[in-house]
Write a structure and sequence with these properties.
single chain, 306 residues, mainly alpha, Serine Threonine Protein Phosphatase 5, Tetratricopeptide repeat, 0% strand
């Protein structure tokens, strides 16, 4: 009996120990779950912070790329405008050289008959004397001293021809100054041309190149960060371009002058006036080369907030 009681006591004690052990294990599990939950919450907070940081970086990168794209578009637009200006300048030069060539050809055709007459007159002067420079011909019938022979030669219109080319020479010298970047000299040369030959067929082109020279000066001042001088040159360019249409309304350079005047007005922050000049160009010169460029500029101005 005593052994059975001892065994029962040991069994009860073992059950108590198991219950205690089971109770301790449950509390540890709860504590571990709480710790894991706190760790998960902290990880979630860090993940949200990281996500916000990444989103901010992505937004910044998008803004930077957008700004860079806009800068690239602006740069390309300026390059296109510069190329258009170069094409316009070269076209004007070709037109001017063609005019000069036609004038020279006309002068040469006019000089040819005079040269033939001079040669005919000079041959009898040499006469049968075999080119003697002193005495008269035998018998004196057709004989004239060799001295008077230069008279008819002097009558050849070589010097008058040179004189008639003088306007083109002045014009070409001014244009060479312009092409070399000597814009002030070019302006002075074209003004001298207009002062002497205001009704010449190249007068409209000369007036145009004065405006173009002031526009080029303005760009140089802008590149040198001299905004006051740039604005002054732009205003002078606008005035000179206006004179092309006012003084030479039938000149070939009128559409180009209107377009360049509008560009100068845009640089002067006068979009309303620029739009009016561009619209005038489109309405009155629909077939001009500058008209398509004017339409593009008009679209840009109309869509630009003011």
């Amino acid at each position: 009996m005593r052994g059975l009681g001892l065994l029962l006591a040991v069994s009860l004690a073992g059950c108590a120990e198991v219950q205690e052990a089971t109770g301790v294990a449950t509390q540890q599990d709860l504590l571990q779950l709480r710790q894991e939950m706190m760790a998960a919450q902290q990880s979630g907070q860090r993940a949200r912070i990281d996500a916000d940081s990444v989103a901010a970086q992505v937004d910044k990168r998008v803004r930077e790329q957008t700004g860079e794209s806009e800068r690239q578009v602006t740069t390309l637009t300026r390059q296109i405008d510069s190329l258009n200006d170069t094409v316009t300048t070269l076209s004007g030069r070709v037109d001017d050289l063609t005019t000069k060539l036609d004038t020279v050809n006309r002068q040469l055709r006019g000089a040819a008959p005079g040269a033939g007459a001079a040669a005919t007159t000079a041959r009898p002067a040499a006469g049968p004397s075999g080119g003697s420079s002193g005495g008269p011909t035998p018998g004196g019938s057709a004989g004239t001293p060799a001295g008077p022979a230069p008279g008819p030669v002097a009558a050849v219109p070589s010097r008058p021809t040179t004189g008639s080319l003088q306007p083109q020479d002045i014009y070409q010298a001014a244009y060479i100054d312009f092409s070399k970047g000597s814009y002030s000299l070019a302006i002075a040369g074209f003004r001298e041309f207009l002062r002497r030959y205001p009704d010449h067929e190249l007068a409209g082109s000369a007036q145009y190149w004065i405006g173009e020279a002031y526009l080029s000066l303005a760009r140089g001042f802008t590149d040198a960060s001299q905004s006051d001088k740039a604005s002054e040159s732009l205003e002078l360019a606008v005035q000179e371009f206006k004179k092309v249409q006012a003084n030479y309304p039938r000149a070939d350079k009128v559409p180009t002058a209107l377009y360049k005047e509008a560009l100068a007005l845009i640089d002067l922050k006068q979009p309303t006036l620029a739009q009016a000049r561009l619209q005038y160009l489109v309405d009155n010169f629909p077939r001009a080369e500058e008209t398509s460029l004017a339409r593009e500029r008009l679209t840009t101005l109309k869509n630009t907030p003011r």
